# Entry
Amino acid sequence: MSNTVKIHPALQDRLSSDVPPRLDDEGRPVRALLMYSGGLDSTLAGLLLRLQGIDVIAVNMFTGFCLTDHKRKMGHTRPDGTRYQNEAIVGAAGLEIPVEVVDVREGYLKVLTEPKYGWGSSVNPCIDCRIHMLGHAQRELMEEYGAHFLATGEVMGQRPMTQMKRQMKLIERDTGLERMVVRPLCQGLLWETIPEERGWVDRSQLMSIQGRGRKQQIALAEELGVLDYPQPAGGCCFLTDGNYGKRLKDTIEFKGGPAITFEDVLVLKLGRHFRLPQGNKLVVGRNEEENELLKAYWTLGCFLEVRGHKGPLCLYVGDRDSEDFALAQRITARYSDCPYDQEAPVQVLHQDEVQEEQMTLPLPFGDENAWKIQ
# Structure
């Protein structure tokens, strides 16, 4: 399996010429707005609709917390040596359907830090996140694209926090989309939707898949002629990561939800994090790629770096008159390759401009763990 979607030429020909367009009562082509990740489930959902003659527009919601996107920015490669890509873009290209990446970060900080329906196992506000995304589609996108309804690749019971009947109904209610969301892979197990009542969608051609296994989806892919697709897998969201969760909870505790900015939460994806004795913060880059990405967060504080020695770029967030500042310099020297028993020249930088330099004795190895968040 690859990191893109490929379909059999016979299926492409069928979609292009053999499927008559489905029309509404006014003679307009029926159009679905598909919440699309580029993965197997949303790909199959789109195909099932297209095989009914429904025009499909794919939308991929960007929150800033996609693990695959982070790996792409870090320059990481997959086990097969290929580079990470935006799977929604390459997947939609394989299906030959239009796709738009939609930035939904506005308002997302409150979703993240003050979720109405709470967090999951870490700091994943899955129900509130789903409401935020579908609500954005309902308010901003359906009319823009002339869509008759929304569609998703959800499977009953696959994700217990959002893909059970009660949660699905709750999400539809809170977004004003009651009975306007079609879930082609599991709709046979759910209530009848308005698109079905109005003849926009044929219920008999939808599926009744449930559970966390993927055997039924893989079999359906083979049956339809989907030749290649990204390896089915969960864990694509930073917010489900336990270490990220500890960092965010620490940030909320010390800064308070209303005062937190997007930079505050996005920087939590990078480096080692330390909450110093007087409450200030130090972020230590772990490699060259993280050092480069860390430079984007210069608005949060100043940088620390050891001159003349290989080592990390560190971001100090807080009061430079605090005793924490000297400790942060010692931690910076500790992570460099300077001799542990000799003073190191630690530079203080604003962006790339050196503001001052202090000779600093590295902190003994292991002592920094007393303040490490994770």
